[in-house]
Amino acid sequence: MVKRIILVTGPARSGKSEWAELLAEQSGKPVIYLATSHLDPDDPEWQGRIDRHRKRRLASWTTQEVPLELSAAILQETTSGNACCLLVDSLGTWVANLLAEDDPTWGAILEELIESLRGVKEGTVIFVAEETGWGVVPAYPMGRSFRDRLGDLVRRLGAIADPVYLVTGGHAVNLSAIGSVLPPSKTLED
Predict the structure, then answer these.
(1) Active-site residue (options: 8, 9, 31, 53)
(2) Residue 97 CB partners (closer than 8 Å, separation 6+)
(3) Is the distance from CB of 30 to CB of 84 less than 8 angstroms?
(4) CB distance 8 to 165 below 8 Å
(5) What is the pTM of this model?
(6) Domain-located, residue 22
(7) CATH code, domain carrying 93
(8) Is residue 186 part of a domain?
(9) Would 126 be classed as within a structural domain?
(10) pLDDT (tens digit per residue) in 123-158
(11) Pairwise CA distance, residues 133 & 55, whole Å
């Protein structure tokens, strides 16, 4: 039994979702797309984004909408004895869905996700994550909380994923091949 965790990260509109979809297709395994977004029929622009993602997916792929219970979905699909490829798109949306949770609750949810990955028996899990900390510090508390939570999550996943890709400017760079994993963060202030 072989398990593989892959992280694809980068800025908005960089091509990270398309790169992750190509990796999923190339895995040779049945693909289950775990969509973390909430559908909002009152937001046509958001619906348009979701529709563009849907149109790119292969007809053979299964899609599950998992806006909150990501850890449970990962465990359910990866411990069933089927060697599948899970494509989680996106972690930024998932973090945003849970932003109202207080810090201790969020910490428990994050640990549950990391623990669910330790429980993966076989198959591939590909995560798509936005890089949000490359700009100014947000001027409002919720924005800072989002940036910090997503940054911490991406760093934690990057420490256990192999490979980790950075997609920017329409190019995918394998950071695992050219970089070194940092030791675990001592604080969330990094």
Answers:
(1) 53
(2) 36, 38, 67, 68
(3) yes
(4) yes
(5) 0.92
(6) yes
(7) 3.40.50.300
(8) no
(9) yes
(10) 999 999 999 888 888 999 999 999 999 999 999 999
(11) 30
